[in-house]
Amino acid sequence: MLFLLYFIADSARKTTQVMLEGKNAIRNLPFPVGERFVQAYRRADDWARSRGYQRREIIYFSLVPEEDLMLTQGHADPDDAPYWLRAAFWWHPEKKTVFSITQVQHQTFADFDTALGRPGGEPAYELTTSNHPDGAVVPRPERFPVQVFPGLAPEGLEPLHERALAWLRRQTGLEPLELGEIVAHVRRHLKNQAEHALAHKPWHLRFYLWHLTKRARLNRPVQQLYARIARDA
Known about the structure:
Layout: H1 2-21, E1 24-29, H2 35-50, E2 54-65, H3 66-71, E3 84-92, E4 97-104, E5 107-117, E6 125-130, E7 146-148, H4 154-172, E8 175-176, H5 182-198, H6 203-213, H7 222-225
Parallel strand pairs: 6-7
Antiparallel strand pairs: 1-2, 2-3, 3-4, 4-5, 5-6, 5-8
Helix pairs in contact: 1-5, 1-6
């Protein structure tokens, strides 16, 4: 059992290193592919557009390097490979919020993301609201607060995101920023998460502890998890 846990943790470390270096492969698609993802996309698209969100990119992204994909048998093809994640994005121009769905091993999860900063500047904070339980495994730094509510549909997540966003704006004095490029948005999220995770040593021990304690970070709003966030001077 210890060997299995070590193997899982080491695989996670290698994946995190790939994310940090920005070497993971990404493909842009003109339309969704795969029966389950198409169904999930249609449901999400109907809801998103009814709420004022606009369609953005559909992408496949891998958590392994491009060269490793090419060495596998057929896994360089996103349509039939376990190494790829399918994701679709929508953007709300008034709320300046990204809504996305990601398919992971035939399950589909939803996220809301909003970047905050000074007008015309780089993001100082990025708020994420998700229903993916693993989003709570690695604790996030205060600049990238995340709240995870497993089982909630987008219509349940959105008001929780907006409530947290209003609190974060009051605490920091910062305002939501324009989105920019979706691929850059994805890579920034992966890189920031990787940087924070690898900064904690010893990695394997931390990984076990994070898994054991992740329930304490589920179903809790950022107002509780990041109460120390203070107004940006």
